[in-house]
Amino acid sequence: MCLPHLRNRYAELLAPYESEDFVAKLVTQLNSYSASPKVQIRHEANFAFPLVFDLAEAKGWRSVSENPAFRAMNAFIRRLDKFSASPWTIRTLKVDIERDFTLVGIFQGQYLSIESPEDDLFTYEDFKMLETSDEPAGVDCPPARIELGAAPAVDTVPLKAVDQTPVVSIADQTIQTTLQTKAGIDLDNLHPQNGPPSMQNQRPASVMMIASLIDNPTNLGGLSRISESFGLEALYIDNLKKAAHKDFKATSVRSEKHLAIRELKEVGVPAFLLDAKSKGYEVVGIEQTDRSGILGHEDSSDQKEILTGDKSAGGQSTHVIRSQDIGTLPKKCCLVLGSEKEGISAEVLAVIDRNVEIKTVGVTRSLNVQTAGGIALYEWWREWGGKN
User: % helix / strand / coil in the chain, to the nearest 5?
Assistant: First the structure.
């Protein structure tokens, strides 16, 4: 959780017990955060600002409520569609600054049940038990600085009687039903057709993905998922510790349990690729260069034309296809992906056999590295998936 987020939440809770000067400084900060280039900070400020402004109006703090800049900001935020019809997320949860500032609100508040629900560390019953255990001992407790609050309501939905009589129509007997199978069991996998169990650990794709230039754990987790799904030999990353990062695991969906992920430092990539080439691998970079072939095309669109004989005398023209212009992927290859910002470094480009780029027609002309890797691997399977 980012610092401005924590600051906003604590400030909202503390504001009723502070002075007008404190709230004036708080809304000044929120006004600045509302223009932050970071989406989360900007959204937090946008939804916190009206709450604090309402408090200032209720308290009669005119230095805030009558400030033209603050009034304009408050009016602008309230006109936003997302303010009046916000989704039910932790960032848009409406909090009553005074009513919800209780022990129950802190430890069992609604914010704990949104997005990624957390177990209650302390409950209303725990505090009541503690209070009850103090009574026989005659402990003279000071007045509560923070009230306990009411026990959280338990939602109950009455069960309705349901007619259990099955209704079968002719249409039900003839219409085929599409079943979602992503999370189910692949029955074919229960009886492998590819030889003895000792052969089952062999990956079907003779491709190694080199992702050592990539830093973002989220992107690496996505590439792990893609690599495992397409049956790659191995995925190489700069540091194996990144595979334990929470952002990696959020996108990998445990694919790292079924894929060989190996450490290859960025400085060691050129030497590794040279060694791979000596073992029969062709090294292909997914990169936009002036000599890149178009992925999926046998040659680039800017072929050089030469003449065999005198054209005026009936000579014929032919196209020269340079190997570095070819956009198809070899069966046994190392796919190299560049960093999110700089792409493939000059040192690595120097040892790459050829580069391919993904043809796009939009203005952006760039793809996320996960997307680019997935498209390239799908193209490999389209070319080689059914061939021995």
Answer: 45, 10, 45
Print burial letters for 351-363: b (CB count within 10 Å at least 16), e (below 16): bbbbbbbbeeeee
Measured CA to CA in angstroms, residue 343 lies from 165, 212, 263, 346, 348 at distances of 63, 12, 20, 9, 10
Element counts in the chain: helices (H) and strands (E)? 14, 9
Does the predicted TM-score (pTM) go above 0.70? no
Judged by DSSP in three states, 89 sits in coil
What pLDDT score was predicted for residue 196? 38
Residue 293 β-bridge partners: 356
Give the DSSP letter string of 97-160: TTTT-SHHHHHH-GGGGSSS----SS-HHHHHHHHHHHHHHT--PPPPSS---PPPP----PPP
pLDDT tens-digit profile of 141-184? 777 778 888 887 765 445 455 455 555 554 445 555 555 555 44
CA–CA distance, 101 with 103 (Å, rounded to integer): 7
CA distances (Å), origin 87, targets 73, 97, 110, 145:
21, 20, 14, 33
Residue-range domains of the chain with CATH:
3-101 (no CATH), 102-150 (no CATH), 204-384 (3.40.1280.10)
Token pair 């006109």 is found at 79
Beta bridge partners of 235: 209, 261
Q: Are 334 and 273 in contact (CB under 8 A)?
A: yes
Which residue do the tokens 């992107």 mark? 219
Give yes or no for a contact between 335 and 207, defined as CB atoms under 8 angstroms apart: yes
- Burial string for 252-290 (b: 16+ CB within 10 Å, else e) reads beebbeebebeebebeebbebbeebeeeebbbbbbbbbe
Predicted pLDDT at 67: 92
pLDDT in tens, 344-357: 999 999 999 999 99
Do the Cβ atoms of 343 and 351 come closer than 8 Å?
no
CA distance 59 to 299: 73
The whole-number pLDDT of residue 306 equals 36
pLDDT at 352: 94
> Which portions of the chain are predicted below pLDDT 50?
1, 86, 156-157, 159, 162, 170-172, 183-200, 300-313, 315, 317-322
- Residue 226 CA to residue 286 CA, distance in Å, equals 15
pLDDT attached to residue 377:
93
